[in-house]
Write a structure and sequence with these properties.
mainly alpha; 0% strand; rod-shaped
Length: 67
């Protein structure tokens, strides 16, 4: 009976240690967004600025004039 309790304690300790070490991901919060371009990645060239300005025209075409 005493050895079963000891084995269960050892197995539980190994499980806790394994889960604790597996959860230590240093780059977990340093991810690149998937739904948009990051400012650090996009604004590198003059062509990037032209693309940004040209994308504004799409929004202007969809607006209606208020009279």
């Amino acid at each position: 009976m005493k050895t079963n309790t000891f084995k269960h304690t050892i197995y539980a300790g190994i499980a806790v240690l394994t889960l604790g070490l597996a959860s230590c991901d240093s780059g977990l919060l340093e991810t690149v967004p998937n739904d948009r371009l990051s400012e650090d990645l996009f604004w590198k060239t003059e062509n990037d600025a032209k693309l940004a300005v040209n994308s504004l025209y799409t929004d202007l075409d969809s607006t209606t004039a208020v009279t």
